[in-house]
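Is it possible to get an amino acid sequence alongside its tokenized fold?
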Amino acid sequence: MSAHPYPTTAERVLALGLPAAALASAASASNAVLTRRVGLEALLGGPRLHALEASLLLALGLGAAVLVAAWNDWRSRGPARAARPALGAAVVGAIAGWQTFLLAVQPFQRVWFDAALVLLCGIWAGGVLWLRRPRQPSRLRRALGLTAVGAALTVAAAELGLRAAGSLAPSALLARSGEAPRKLIERFRCRPGLGRFGFPCNSSGYYDEEFYRTRPGERAVCSIGDSFNLGSVPHARHFTTVCEGELGLAVHNLGVAGIGPREYLALLLDEALPLAPDAVVVGLFVGNDLDVADVGRDLPDAGLRAWLQRERVLTWVLPRRLARVARECKRLGNRRREVAIVQGERAVAERFPWLDEPALEEGTLSPESFDCLETQRALAVCARSPVSLTTVFESLAAMHEACGEIPFGVMLIPDEFQVSDALWARVVAAAGVPLERDRPQRLLRAWLEEADIPYLDLLEKLRAVSPAADGQRHLYHLRDTHFNARGNDVAGRALARFFAALLDA
């Protein structure tokens, strides 16, 4: 309540403007909900729909009552009753409604947002009518009001602060789904000079030597990819370095962990083509480049989704990520593979003996988490339910077109469950539905052949490796899903032959 005998102009405008804006928003949202009445009736049924319609009408009635009362105050130039408490209630209601929507109404759909907006305006209007009742304000009521407003503002400030921190200091922990490709690249790109197995990332943030633009008479090629290109082995053992030695010319490794097909296209346009390469190959990992590529693609209401889709709200996703990290540390006894600056190849081999003896390696993930991850990936791309590859195909077609006369090819990288028979048996047992093990490659090969894009399918190359004495091929890190030194060697030699074929074509 205003502390002045007569309200200030700002309070008078606020007292009338808030109800007018609330009623206008509620009326617009109600109209949007009722235009979908046929679909809602099929979804909710008649009784529930009637209850929803009655709730919307009640909310509109309360909003109209508040607006009429505010208009009468304006005309009579009387006190702008509850102007300040109404603003506080609006702040608390908006934040509380936002959090309730994230908790109970997921995934985001516009019709439920419109319905929630009307109901929230009605609840707020009912609160304002109650606040207009003449009574002496108590200290307790004021304290509770200030506490509620403070808590609401703290929640909003926390989200804004996390987003600001994620923009100023990019981090995988602060990544949000649906971010623009170039923003994701900058978020996940390595820090220039970061040491990995004794090798510093170059000035562009890539796990390779400094790039250079090819000059007349010089030849170089580019390899684009995700965490497989970033790699988790010493630089000398990485598949692009192995390929470089076999091919006899520079192979520029543009790898950024955590990205996908749309980011590959952005890397090609912004960074690979300006190097004037003689050929380009993009690595497509079937484990996670196919199943989530279309999430949020070309969906309406982008601004609303940025705040009302749970996966995009950092105050919701960050605690879950931290809890997952803590849970894995507990399962593994706080052990993790070290990727540190170690000087010299001999020192690297001594520090990481699992490079040549896979049996000595400690798993990155716990057995439970690893099997769960691989089962989820298999269900996403190997089950009979259709998987949308629209974004993958459109991105590859755009890359092929952008390369023009420069030879362009695709390297298909299989998931470990497609190579390890023991892991595949566990995945099939856990999935509970029929799975087609080679389905991703079958779909991709068919499209690539139709699009006349050359490809290298590493699946047959990896399966051709003879198993060790224990019956395992040991081509991936233990419970990690990425190539170890043996897998990188197979991939590098195959990639060299593929680049040679592209250059001779």
In short: The mean pLDDT is 85.
